[in-house]
Automatic annotation (TrEMBL):
Protein localization: Cytoplasm
Keyword Metal-binding tagged: no
Name of the protein in its database record: [Ribosomal protein bS18]-alanine N-acetyltransferase
Protein task: Acetylates the N-terminal alanine of ribosomal protein bS18.
Class of enzymatic activity (EC top level): transferase
Length: 150
């Protein structure tokens, strides 16, 4: 929660939202969460996926500011994409703040394309979200390592 509030001060998830997400992150559940820790065991990143039938949704990706730019976000995203393929998702959606160009570039490197805008999605700041989609996951799975390494 500390990292969540530090990285997303205007629109951080509540403790209850995370408990709800993690309650369904078990074998057979619709959620999948991964974390990244540094050499001292401190949490430096996390990411979450919701997969229901053919539909997948990136719930969150966060990387500690001191570890950004080193490929950690790409590794977390690649793990979520690989998990969505394992679960048989045909597409993967995500929302990203319209003012978060760095994240948008990361998603574009993995083949996500803009498909719409959700007005006022991020509250209470009332910031729009760009909706992005990755299609044909099964055919893209073998290329994941190349995307996050390039």
């Amino acid at each position: 929660m500390e990292l969540e509030h530090r990285l997303f001060p205007d629109d951080a998830w509540s403790r209850g939202m995370y408990w709800s997400e993690l309650a369904d992150a078990h074998p057979g559940g619709s959620r999948h969460y991964v974390v990244a820790v540094d050499e001292d065991g401190a949490l430096v990143g996390y990411a979450g996926l919701m997969a229901v039938g053919p539909d997948g949704d990136v719930q969150t990706i966060a990387v500690e500011s001191g570890h950004q730019g080193a490929g950690l976000g790409a590794m977390l995203l690649a793990e979520l994409i690989e998990e969505s393929v394992r679960r048989g998702c045909a597409e993967l959606l995500l929302e990203v703040r319209v003012d978060n160009l760095r994240a948008q570039r990361l998603y574009e490197r993995f083949g996500f394309e803009p498909v719409g805008i959700r007005r006022g999605y991020y509250q209470p700041a009332n910031v729009d979200a760009l909706v992005m989609r990755l299609d044909h996951l099964a055919s893209d799975a073998s290329d994941l390592k190349d995307h996050h390494n390039g």
